[in-house]
Amino acid sequence: MTARLGGLPFGVSFLLEIVRLGLGNLRRHMLRSVLTALGIILGVAAVIANGGIGEGAKREAVAQLERLGAKNIIVRSQQPTDSAQGGGSGRAAFTSRYGLTRADLKVLREEFADEAAEIVALKEVGGQVLRGAQRRTSQAYGTEPAFIRVANLRVSRGRYLTEEDLSESAMVAVIGSEIARLHFQPFEDPVGDTIRIDTRTFKIIGVLEPVGFAGGKGAAQLGRDLNLDVHIPLTTANETLGDVVMRTTSGNRSMSAVQISDIYFTAKSRETVLQLAELVRRAVEVRRPGLTDVAIIVPFELLEEARKTAALWQLVLGAIAGISLLVGGIGIMNIMLASVTERTREIGIRRALGATRKHIIYQFLVETGVLSVIGGIIGVGVGISLTLFIAWIATAARNLPLIGGWFPADVNLPTAIAPGSIVVAFFVAALTGIIFGLYPAIQAARKDPIEALRHN
Length: 456
Hints:
3-stranded mixed sheet; 12-stranded mixed sheet; 2 domains; alpha+beta; single chain; 456 residues
């Protein structure tokens, strides 16, 4: 028959008594307990905050590359490094001819008609985009209606290009959100108005929604900010604006003739992206040996690279934050060792009354365990709050007096609560308390009862 004490089995009652004694001792030395737990609190908070920053950066990088289209393969015309450059002011400039041709596009369309879900071409046109007295270097492209799907774009006002616009070579344009902001007043609707590309006037039929990776990894891979794009029908670009693009910058004039700037291939599924990319690479290299004037961009490969890089950074940040937990554990051990010396007589009395070494170890482990668990819980709360605060302050910093001017207008530090870091930080904190509390507990249990009773 199991022995009972106060209506509970003896083992349960004894465990509860040990917990009560441990909590009572912590309560009697409240300031010391708080300072001891502070290392655990800060360590857990640091792990969660670092995890939040790393997770936010990872999600942002992945989102930026996702916007490029994780199923896309982009074949891009690029000027060879040894190509002739434009002449200076007052001299006739050489016309640099390079890149993809309409013949390339036709062959690639035929070759990959079955393998690719979409094949869409872009053609860079014009030297300047103008409206009234306002002008800026052209970022206009002739393209096809399917580009809005391929590039994951959305129209905020009006509509996008249609097959009818393409077949009629219509003089219409869809502009990016930043073009709308720069060339139109805040309450002015660009749809129905006009804009010029060089000397040609186009009716604006739509405005694109802002694309959120201006200046980010996605824009770096595209080589431009999509918010500054102007899209016109590809047939209009070929027939009206031609292949030669002339630009004048700081007195220097450059002229280039590129028939097709980009070809977007969209795979039917993510599983076939890399396979399709390899086939496209081989097909392009047959027509462009050495790929000297074309580049092949595979966002899916960049996506995997971004995930690996983010995971590595999270590991580094976690290791740095883990040092705080280690320091917290050492603090617990130091305090508990001091507590063993301070409570030597108490240990002797309990041993004299029948407590075994195991009971003494349990008592001290309960105290360190409670300290680390409570510290872990508080640290989780502090860490989540700190993660949210970092995201807020990074955005609000530019509006603060005195220091606001030091921050760029587009400053942003995305964060995200990572459940994994919360679970890991809490359990590591609890484990830290037990591990670092074990040595002081053993030291306490090893004390000779008679010598302990003599201690003052």
